[in-house]
Write a structure and sequence with these properties.
Structural class: alpha+beta
Oligomer: single chain
Radius of gyration: 43 Å
Helix content: 55-70%
Strand content: 5-15%
Number of strands: 15
Strand order of the largest sheet: 10-11-9-13-12
Largest sheet: 5 strands, antiparallel
């Protein structure tokens, strides 16, 4: 690899215009492919096959008419008083305008929705009055009917008495009939028949009256049943309204109202142009005395790639480069190389956004990484080139050798970062794997630019990369004093113990870390999203910002008449859970086997109480007459919980893979067991301390005013796993550039403890500059407008700060000192098996000595006679003073690694 990079460097130096033009063409091609094939970037953070996504898929299948996401627009009067009729009219006009936008299915005013709810409640009141009046009428009718029944009973008794009397008279007439004259007997019989006819007529009247009363009773009974059924239905409706009494669309004082926008697609699939148009309309809304705010589900879009904070970070990096190199042209080379690499990588990656779903943070992460490593990688090669020029090497030879040595280390370090980022794909989470892939692409192009474009620029600039004073002293670098004494053992012990203790304390808050996704509360206090979130919280309750969608799957389909009763049964069961403020039925599937409810929690979308509520709802058992109901939960709060839970579950696996990879790579590079173990332990300390800082600032709110944290919230769910991957790669960079110098000094004969000091002395300047540059670039993103980008920028900046300046420059040297010669112990049988990885091109360097100085003891470029007796206390070049070795030799049959 070193020889290949050497030839690439020489070629780039000789054909610098060809290389430069080639990269410009590549940039142009990437720009063209981006313009032709780029797609929409989503603000969604979702994972397939979660409980939430399964519920959403079921809803899409069972409620096709309800397909499409919703967005919220909040209207609030500036004086805190109720809306006037004129203002209500203007709000309606605004929503009508929104409804006409492409991708919008409808827009509903909260005034209309609230009126419907109020009308329903009034109907309940009116219905109860009507039922009461109806019952009173029925009771009056029943009383009248009972009186008629009593009269009929009395008349019936009189008829029975009259019939009995008549029957007695008939008997008497029959008995005396023989003794009476025929005329008298006939007259008596006629009177009896007439009397019987009267009784029969009265009986017929009684029978007709009884039938009328029976019919009237049936009517009253039927009306009573209808009234009872209506009363039952009314009470069921009343119970449903009671369950949803805390759901409002107009605030209780009338000063705020919620407008709902329904999209034709899910909220996260809505084109950015549609959301931007709504947000722009809201910003420019001219409703007298009314503020218009759009919520996070509409306003959350693609964060700007370079804002003021990021530009300041790049400026600080430029200042560090200038202070280190003391030339403007030298400081510009890493910056130009990094910007070119970022441009090509970003445009190339985004060209696939039409085929693969990109989330908004993905390209920003690529820019963040590309800038940081692009500047550092170019700096390593440039710094080596400058050193060689000062020693008298020819420009093209120096460029080739710098590319073959430091460039080789850059390739290895970058490859480590790339592997760590690509390993994110093993998590099985699509958006996370894509973030890792895009980040790896950015690092890949940073490596290509550093090893081809940077050498071309160095060739074009020639000797002007050195200052005039430096050019005047070429070939005479002067004497350089290097350490001859090891650090004090007590100092190493104190440094190690104190450092671990301090990092342990910083890491303590990480034990309380909670994961989540950003809400409107995380946005800038001046943003529309934040104001909408706060208005909803204050006027409608915290739960209005994160309502849950509960889907009840019934054991079998129900009849239309049973729908309301079933809704009440399930709704009352849901309302019994702690932290449930309201339950609102929102629909039944066409075959009536699924009922959907909106549940308003008492806490916000990122509160612990809401998280517990989601778990309780999913575990709850509800029973109806037909059997057990299955409950599913969806919604933003539920999705946040599922995403965070899935990421938390894969985090240990990823950590094991990264740590295992770290150990294997370092064992091969340093041919040691203890060095990789200390390096990995240091990496874990760095990561945990970084997590502790993140938790303290972004979750607990410590130093919130400094970092713009006004509403502490859970840590971004995918940040820990992303940070592990990136910090692993960067930590291995610093470990390589510092410890390889220690190994070189040890292999050249220095004692193990003195070698620690020499390696640290040789590498600390370039590592310090590289770390400061990286911290500056990452820290610039802390002040981004995006609540998603801020914690990523802080986590990486703080992690690099801890790892470079505490772990690599303090703890690792102290640990290496205490380990002494045992740090480099390696079994001979394993030494023969493990491949020789010449990370920094030591073989190449020995075959290309500094021009004009071959064969001179102690001179730069000589293949090595360090430690020769008679050397003076100072020397010219890069070799150290002679010291007594810990052993007779430090040889393993392999050439020593060489530092950048």
């Amino acid at each position: 690899m070193a020889g290949l990079l050497y030839r690439l460097g020489r070629f780039s130096a000789r054909r610098h215009w060809l290389v430069i033009i080639t990269w410009v063409v590549i940039m142009a091609v990437a720009g063209v492919t981006y313009s032709l094939f780029s797609g929409t970037i989503s603000s969604a953070i979702s994972i397939p096959n979660t409980k939430t996504s399964q519920v959403q898929d079921e809803l899409a299948d069972k409620f096709p008419s309800a397909n499409g996401g919703n967005g919220t627009i909040v209207f609030e009067t500036t004086n805190g008083k109720a809306f006037t009729d004129a203002q209500k009219s203007e709000v309606a006009d605004f929503l009508t305008k929104v409804e006409k936008l492409d991708g919008v299915k409808g827009a509903t005013s909260g005034f209309d929705t609230q009126d419907q709810l109020d009308e329903q409640r009034q109907k309940i009141v009116d219905g109860r009055k009507e039922i009461t009046d109806g019952r009173a009428k029925l009771e009056t009718g029943q009383d009248q009917l009972d009186a008629q029944k009593a009269q009929l009973t009395s008349g019936k008794q009189q008829i029975e008495d009259a019939q009995a009397q008549l029957d007695a008279q008939k008997a008497q007439a029959e008995a005396a009939g023989a003794a009476l004259p025929a005329a008298q007997a006939q007259a008596a019989a006629a009177q009896l028949q007439q009397a019987q006819a009267q009784i029969d007529a009265q009986q017929a009247q009684i029978d007709a009256g009884e039938q009328q009363i029976a019919d009237a009773q049936k009517t009253i009974d039927a009306n009573t049943k209808k009234l009872d059924d209506s009363a039952d239905e009314l009470e069921q409706g009343s119970k449903l309204l009671d369950l949803s009494k805390d759901v409002r669309f107009v605030s209780s004082n009338g000063s705020a109202v919620i407008g709902t926008v329904q999209f034709t697609k899910s909220t996260y699939e809505v084109p950015a142009d549609t959301k931007t148009a709504i947000a722009d309309d809201a910003d420019s809304a001219d409703i007298s005395g009314v503020n218009v705010y759009v919520s996070n589900d509409i306003a959350q879009g693609v964060p700007s790639i370079l804002g003021p904070g990021e530009i300041v970070g790049v400026i600080i990096a430029a200042l560090v480069l200038f202070l280190m190199l003391r030339t403007i042209i030298g400081a510009a080379i890493p910056l130009v190389s990094a910007v070119l690499g970022v441009g090509v990588a970003s445009l190339a990656s985004l060209s696939f956004s039409g085929l693969v779903e990109f989330i908004s943070v993905t390209p920003v992460l690529g820019v963040m990484l590309g800038l940081a490593v692009g500047i550092d990688y170019s700096l390593f090669i440039l710094n080596r080139h400058r050193t060689q020029l000062k020693q008298g090497m020819q420009v093209h030879e120096s460029i080739g050798l710098a590319n073959g040595t430091s460039g080789n280390a850059v390739v290895f370090a970058g490859a480590t970062v790339i592997v760590a980022l690509l390993a994110l794909n093993i998590t099985g989470i699509p958006f996370l794997g894509l973030m890792g892939t895009v980040g790896a692409v950015a690092v890949f192009f940073a490596i290509l630019i550093a090893t081809s474009f940077t050498p071309a620029l160095l060739s074009l600039i020639g000797m002007r990369i050195l200052r005039k004073k430096e050019r005047a002293k070429i070939g005479n670098t002067g004497s350089t004093r290097v350490p001859n004494k090891p650090m004090k053992t007590w100092r190493a012990i104190v440094t190690l113990v104190a450092g671990v203790a301090v990092l342990g304390v910083i890491a303590l808050p990480a034990t309380q870390m909670r994961l989540g996704l950003p809400t409107g509360a995380s946005e800038s206090v001046d943003s529309s999203q934040y104001k909408a979130y706060e208005a909803l919280d204050e006027e409608f309750g915290a739960g209005q910002n994160g309502p849950l969608l509960v889907v009840a799957t019934l054991p079998e389909s129900i009849s239309k008449s049973d729908v309301t009763e079933t809704e009440v049964t399930i709704g009352e069961a849901l309302a019994k859970n702690d932290d449930v403020k309201a339950v609102l039925p929102i629909g039944t599937s066409s075959d009536r086997d699924i009922i959907a409810f909106q549940v308003k929690p008492g806490g916000g979308p990122d509160s612990i109480s809401t998280e517990n509520l989601v778990k309780d709802l999913r575990e709850q058992t509800v029973t109806t007459d037909d059997g057990t109901v299955t409950l599913g939960v969806a919604g933003n709060a539920s999705a946040n919980i599922d995403v965070s839970e899935k990421l938390s579950n894969v985090l240990p696996l990823y950590l094991v893979v990264v740590v295992g990879l770290s150990l294997i790579i370092l064992i091969i590079v340093f041919r040691s067991f203890l060095v990789p173990i200390t390096a990995t332990a240091g990496f874990i300390l760095s990561v945990m301390a970084s997590f502790g800082g993140l938790t303290a600032i972004y979750q607990w709110g410590w130093l919130g005013s400094v970092f713009g944290v006004h509403d502490p919230a859970p840590i971004l769910s995918f940040l820990p796993i992303i940070e592990i991957g990136i910090l692993f790669g960067l930590a291995m960079d610093y470990q390589l550039f510092l410890v390889s110098g220690m190994r070189e000094a040890y292999a050249h004969g220095a004692s193990a403890k003195v070698a620690v000091q020499r390696g640290l002395h040789a590498g600390r300047a370039v590592v310090t500059a590289a770390a400061i540059i990286m911290i500056s670039v990452f820290a610039g993103f802390i002040f981004s407008d995006s609540s998603t980008i801020k914690p990523i920028g802080f986590g990486l900046a703080f992690g690099v700060l801890i790892d470079a300046f505490v772990v690599r420059m303090l703890l690792i040297p102290a640990a290496m000192h205490l380990l002494g010669q045992s740090a480099w112990w390696f079994p001979k049988w394993l030494d023969r098996i493990v491949p020789d990885v010449d990370v920094e091109g030591a073989k190449l360097e020995r075959s290309h000595p500094v021009a004009g100085q071959p064969g001179q003891p102690g001179q730069p470029g000589q293949p090595g006679q360090p430690g020769q007796p008679g050397h003076e206390d100072t020397h010219t070049g890069s070799h150290a003073l002679s010291v007594a070795p810990d052993a007779n030799a430090h040889e393993s049959g392999h050439p020593p690694a060489h530092r950048a």
